[in-house]
Write a structure and sequence with these properties.
With 175 residues, the chain is of the alpha+beta class. The chain has 2 domains: 59 residues, Orthogonal Bundle (434 Repressor (Amino-terminal Domain)); 102 residues, Jelly Rolls, CATH 2.60.120. Helix content is 24%, strand content 30%. The chain is built from 5 helices and 9 strands; from the N terminus they run αααααβββββββββ. A hairpin with a 2-residue loop joins strand 5 and strand 6. Helix 2 crosses helix 3. The longest helix has 12 residues. The mean pLDDT is 90. GO terms for molecular function: DNA binding; DNA-binding transcription factor activity. Keywords: DNA-binding. This is Cupin. It comes from Fervidobacterium pennivorans.
C-alpha cells in the first residue's frame, strides 16, 4: 500500500475532511491532498505530526503485522483474587490499543462480584446461562438467560447470582 492511500484511509476512519486534518496539523489542505495522491513526500517530522493527529505513530503505521483476529479458547487468561464463587476469564489478551475489554464471568449460586466505584467507560453484559441481579447505585435490576444489560461506569455497581444454578455472562467494558 502506498503512503498516501494509507494516510487517506486513516483520515477517513477518523472522520476528518482533508481541511480538518490540515487544520489540526497546521498544514495546507492542498498539501494533504497532494500527500494522499502520492504527489509529495512529507518530512519525518511532518509525517509524525500527521500520524499523532490520526491516533497512531510511525511504528504502527509502517508495521506490516496483521492484527490478531481470532482468540482461541485455550488462550483465555484467568483473573485471580476474586470473591468465592466468582470466575472470570479475559477473552482477548495482549491486544494493543484495544478500546474494550471482553470477559466471561461465571457466578456460583449466591456469589457476587466486587463492588466497583465510578470509572470511565460503559459496560455491557449478555446473560448466557442463569440469572443475575445487577446493582447500580443501590437499585437492583434482574437479567435472565438471553437478556442483556448496558450502563455507564459512572455509578457504583456489582452483580450477584440470586439463583440456584451457575450464571454465565459475557461482559464487555469500554476502556
Amino acid at each position: 500500500m502506498k503512503l498516501g492511500s494509507k494516510l487517506k484511509r486513516l483520515r477517513l476512519a477518523r472522520g476528518y475532511t482533508q481541511e480538518e486534518l490540515a487544520d489540526r496539523c497546521d498544514l495546507s489542505r492542498s498539501f494533504i491532498s497532494q500527500l494522499e495522491s502520492d504527489k509529495v513526500s512529507p518530512s519525518v517530522e511532518t509525517l509524525e505530526r500527521i500520524l499523532r493527529v490520526l491516533g497512531t505513530d510511525l511504528k504502527h503505521f509502517f508495521s506490516d503485522e496483521q492484527k490478531k483476529i481470532i482468540f482461541k479458547k485455550d488462550e483465555r487468561v484467568p483473573v485471580y483474587d476474586l470473591p468465592k464463587g466468582v470466575n472470570i476469564e479475559i477473552l482477548m489478551d495482549a491486544v494493543e490499543d484495544k478500546e474494550l475489554d471482553a470477559k466471561i464471568v461465571e457466578l456460583e449460586p449466591g456469589a457476587q462480584t466486587e463492588q466497583e466505584g465510578y470509572h470511565d467507560g460503559d459496560e455491557f453484559g449478555y446473560v448466557i446461562e442463569g440469572s443475575v441481579d445487577i446493582y447500580i447505585d443501590g437499585k437492583r435490576y434482574r437479567a435472565n438467560e438471553g437478556d442483556c444489560f448496558y450502563y455507564s461506569g459512572d455509578c457504583v455497581h456489582y452483580m450477584r447470582n440470586p439463583g440456584k444454578e451457575k450464571a454465565k455472562i459475557l461482559w464487555i467494558q469500554t476502556i
